[in-house]
Amino acid sequence: ENLGTIIADSGRVGIVGAIVRNKGGIAADQVSRGADGRIFLKATKSVAIEQGSKISANGERGGRIEVSAQQGDVRVETGSALTAIGSTSSGGTISLQSAQGNVVVEPGAVVDASGVSGGSIQASAAQGQVYAGGTFAASAARGGITPTSRTPLVLSSFTKIAATATPSEAE
Prior knowledge:
Elements: E1 5-7, E2 12-22, E3 25-27, E4 38-49, E5 54-56, E6 64-69, E7 74-76, E8 81-83, E9 93-98, E10 103-105, E11 110-112, E12 120-125, E13 130-132, E14 135-137, E15 153-155, E16 160-162
Parallel strand pairs: 1-3, 2-4, 3-5, 4-6, 4-7, 5-8, 6-9, 7-10, 8-11, 9-12, 10-13, 11-14, 13-15, 14-16
């Protein structure tokens, strides 16, 4: 359980446990060229990104954020944010996965992998559903977002999905 702030500039942060809860800040933002940050939260049961959490792997090129649970849910609560934003290059990758539970992104939560040349958001619940109630952004000149694969997707009236592209740059 993280209630404070963990900072690993251009580094790696990993939290592994039976149940993983984050209510603070985790930052692996890029501070030197070519050194993208990576954050992973992995649980055998469930992962909760609680209200007010800020998890970032931002930089010139977006980093990578992986959140996964084996037996329970991955929950991104209202008021929390996961960002892997690329300021001058590609957006990062954000992966939310549950092997036996659901992936829930509550209304008011933000998942953003935007960048100059697009980013990727992957949400997968192998035996459950993906409940997308928050904001998903992977916008860029070429756009980008990875839809869920073979997973039922449930959208709410609060869901916002932005994968926009500049018309001259779109493929």
